[in-house]
From TrEMBL:
It comes from Allocoleopsis franciscana PCC 7113. The J domain is necessary and sufficient to stimulate DnaK ATPase activity. Zinc center 1 plays an important role in the autonomous, DnaK-independent chaperone activity of DnaJ. Zinc center 2 is essential for interaction with DnaK and for DnaJ activity. Zn(2+) 1 binds at C145, C148, C202, C205. Participates actively in the response to hyperosmotic and heat shock by preventing the aggregation of stress-denatured proteins and by disaggregating proteins, also in an autonomous, DnaK-independent fashion. Unfolded proteins bind initially to DnaJ; upon interaction with the DnaJ-bound protein, DnaK hydrolyzes its bound ATP, resulting in the formation of a stable complex. GrpE releases ADP from DnaK; ATP binding to DnaK triggers the release of the substrate protein, thus completing the reaction cycle. This is Chaperone protein DnaJ. The lineage of its organism: Bacteria, Bacillati, Cyanobacteriota, Cyanophyceae, Coleofasciculales. Residues 3-67 form the J domain.
């Protein structure tokens, strides 16, 4: 049987915030859009199930007491217990079930309910992530029906009291078990716990009180975001039920690779190819950065793979855009594969001045190969 604490990597006495942090970290790591490895999707489902159980105090308490049976509604194996779950039997036996939990559930269902949170994955190009800015997105979500004002009833009509439960939203049923007779309270199947039924449904929303709409939004991308950065857009999730507040929209950012630049934290890395003569003699070159062209000094005698730094041309720190990283350029020396006769003559003179050997396989062989190529 799965151990949900082990799945999230937390101790059994972890508080709610610790569980939430563990879930976010693991969900980001194993999300199918990010992790394509075999088994990542199943791992992601396990993580979500573990968080679903441990994030709610009531379900967590039942899990701690009865394990998986306490949260899955599994039958304990007695034929005449009917639909009661293992945890329901013990709640009723020890705590005098008598409708208490059912009434609480009905009160929750009949009052305002907050709308669901939504998630949107958004791709940005490299420079958008560096500098941020405004981005227009389209998000499908549930909006309150303005025709019926979220009642679900046709204008001019009202929902009526449910005849099955008389408006309580719950039904009671006597159940015999090996422990004795108990009264089981469950959600009314006619009104689904609402306590009311709609005879004339609103034609605009079909009685749901909400309608699926696609909305355009402009969101602000802060400078310095990276893969996995999550932005919260308040009150742009689904509309609530029965006058409840809307949920939030969470935008997860994914950064596209750039052909020229590579990012490490707040630093930007790139390669710069110079000729062997430029490396020997030194020079000043115009190089490309995310800020545009910048002049860079190549010191005389620069060696291959030397890293030169352009300060404050990297990525702004997220939340503190005034502070920026650096642009690090790795110098690559371009050795020509072909040279002219004049260039060969000059290089041979230089070799004699330096006292370098010029036999086959040495300078002469090397230069001859360049010339023949």
């Amino acid at each position: 049987m799965p151990d949900y604490y082990d799945i999230l990597g937390v101790s059994r006495d972890a508080d709610k915030e610790e569980i939430k942090r563990a879930y976010r970290r693991l969900a980001r790591k194993y999300h199918p859009d990010v992790n394509k490895e075999l088994g990542a999707e199943e791992r992601f489902k396990e993580i979500n199930r573990a968080y679903e159980v441990l994030s709610e105090p009531e379900t967590r308490a039942r899990y701690d007491r009865f394990g998986e049976a306490g949260v899955s509604g599994a039958s304990p194996g007695f034929g005449d217990i009917g639909d009661m779950g293992f945890a329901d039997i013990f709640e009723s036996f020890f705590n005098g079930f008598a409708g208490g939990m059912g009434q609480q559930a009905t009160r929750r269902r009949s009052g305002p309910v907050r709308g669901e949170d939504l998630r949107l994955d958004l791709k940005l190009d490299f420079r958008e992530a560096v500098f941020g800015g405004e981005k227009e997105i389209r998000i499908p979500h549930l909006e309150t029906c303005n025709v019926c004002n979220s009642t679900g009833a046709k204008p001019g009509t009202r929902p009526r009291t449910c005849p099955t439960c008389s408006g309580t939203g719950q039904v009671r049923r006597a159940t015999r078990t090996p422990f004795g007779s108990f009264t089981q309270v469950s959600v009314c199947p006619t009104c689904n716990g609402e306590g009311q039924v709609i005879e004339d449904k609103c034609e605009s929303c079909g009685g749901a009180g909400r309608k699926q709409e696609t909305k355009k939004l402009k969101i602000t991308i802060p400078p310095g975001v990276d893969n996995g950065t999550r932005l919260r857009v308040s009150k742009e999730g689904d509309a609530g039920l029965r006058g409840g507040p809307p949920g939030d929209l969470y935008v997860y950012l994914f950064i596209e690779e750039d052909a020229e630049f590579h990012r490490e934290g707040i630093n930007i890395l790139s390669d710069l190819k110079v000729s062997y003569l430029q490396a020997i003699l030194g020079c000043r070159l115009e190089v490309t950065t995310v800020d545009g062209p910048v002049e860079l000094t190549i010191p005389p005698g620069t060696q291959p793979n030397t890293v030169l730094t352009l300060e404050n041309h990297g990525v702004p720190k997220l939340g503190n855009p005034v502070s920026r990283g650096d642009h690090l350029l790795t110098i690559l020396i371009d050795i020509p594969t072909r040279i002219t006769a004049e260039e060969r003559e000059l290089l041979e003179k230089l070799a004699k001045i330096k006292g370098d050997r010029t036999g086959k396989g040495g300078i002469e062989g090397f230069l001859g190969g360049l010339f023949r190529g």
